[in-house]
């Protein structure tokens, strides 16, 4: 049981009616501080309500009567609704709805004269969730007293406009409107009706002749209804009840919702039920009551003679009682539901503290998701949580716990009562929560405490996010973090912390000890590569020179990346290549890789770098050639690299490199001294495949005539034989010449070759070359003769057919079709085919163009 409300008088009987005993209250309307009362003598009374506090501190109201107005009709005022944006009261009296000025209480004339009136009205309601965007227009649902219809009106300052009319299966007697949805009480049942689409949904039966139906809008697309059996039922626009019903008296005559409470009025009592657990929370005695309504969170009741207000009691007392019983959700919902009744600043502070208390209650119950959400919404100082774990806060922290305390726990061990599994679960939650909030405004002013605590938890729990924390912007206190990281052997992480604090030398020394096996930390298996990358990006040049030698000695191939992968930026100084080359002098492999990077990748156009690289390549080739036995695969790769550089580069000094014959031939080729190059390849190296490859390479970007010239030059070198004074087998050169002709015969001029060949050579040796040459010549000759013969034969055949056809008539008509295109003739000019068949002249012309004699005869094999 919770004491949630106190009944306070607002308008006493004497203030309302004086000594007129027969005057009764028929309806009320409250708009802000303005209270309007409609009476049975057709008067409207206007009061101004002011909140006052009694001498005991209890709330109260003081009513001041501003005006009363007679409406000029005979029957009681049935209903009042305020349209504050229009400064109008919507009044129902004698079955007529009309508008009254809220200040003067004068009836408002319509724009076209007379009153803005709707006649034949049984009841009406105002749409508190209007679909019309016009702020100076009120939507209203109207029940007809004579027809089974519901009408939708738009109410303006001086007129009303009918926009929709719907028929109902029974006579409606009560209505409530939200958006497009009408909740109706018919004679025997409740129903939901969408006036935009016409769709309807029956809810449940109810005999309105036995009990007055109750239809109240309590929220967006949700209604409260009086159901049989003394139940208060909730229904949404889809006809579904998403809340459990509350059980009230069967004689309820009015109901309202003041969240989270449902207030009901019967003949003798006011009952207050919780919407959370549907239990009765409070009962107040109230006789002769017949009106109960909620006006923007203010619950107002009226008897026939006076008006009262149900004032909620202080929330703090209700909420703390609920929290003490661990009824967290009820406490929070009660707090949020009463927001409009508390000043904004006070509510925010109260709400935050209650959320924090609720969070610690659920944290103690290991309901971490709910606790986190409450901590987040309550903007908890995260150090309240951190302080539950001894030693997590740095020694420099000035934090003290909140007073009065938010919880009853001394530390995590107290909370878990010594259960280490619970302690571990709490720490995992703390890691997750601190990780989420550390980059938000929640940690403003305590970033050092939060990041240091998070680092200690990460290290203790061997958490993967430790490196992410230290590699990003952080405020970890170095003095507190170093011993903690050393305790758990997190040396790589400690190096990152040193680096973040500008102590790169300390970081490198620590990492090198780990890489050399002096310290054990399995965090990174690629620590050596990481150190190299770190030096690549370091802006401290002295540090690079100091530790590069260690990296080059450990692995020159990876270590040279310190220099090859270094990028120049405004924060990173460029290293002088000459200084690097000098530094790498004692690391031959690294020096070669660095020069390759300069020349081949970065394309540095400096002669000394190109020459130096070529010399290193050359030395490599000579070294491999001097080995016994030779590593042919390595030698081939080394030569290929050297030759590629010699061909592609134009910057090296040639005279330094003319020491190997094959490379010298390439250099002569670069100078277009092809005769010298071929002389070296043929007579000195006896490397005939390389000679042919040289001709192909030297003519690769030239025309066919240039290539033919080179191959004739090579053939001439072969046929000239060995020069005087040089030993050599002339038969070997002759066989090379024969092979050259037979392999590349298509390049040569056959006539010129025949003139060059010695007369004593056997034709059998040159059979492939000569056979191809003769076949090519004969093929061209025979193809021409065949084409000429076919043309001559076709000409004779056409002359013969023409002479034969001229001797007999040819019949042409519009009904007769061409034999070739099958279209009819439109003119007498035709051509007659053999057999007397007429065809169009243009069809014959096309046939002649497609004749075989007009096409070039080809033969891919060049054979006749």
Automatic annotation (TrEMBL):
InterPro entries: Clathrin_H-chain/VPS_repeat, CNH_dom, Vam6/VPS39/TRAP1, VPS39/TGF_beta_rcpt-assoc_1, VPS39/TGFA1_Znf. CHCR repeats lie at residues 566-723. Residues 22-299 form the CNH domain. GO terms for biological process: autophagy; endosomal vesicle fusion; intracellular protein transport. PROSITE patterns: CHCR (PS50236), CNH (PS50219). One of its GO terms (cellular component) is membrane. Pfam families: CNH (PF00780), Vps39_1 (PF10366), zf-Vps39_C (PF10367). This is Transforming growth factor, beta receptor associated protein 1. It comes from Neolamprologus brichardi (Fairy cichlid).
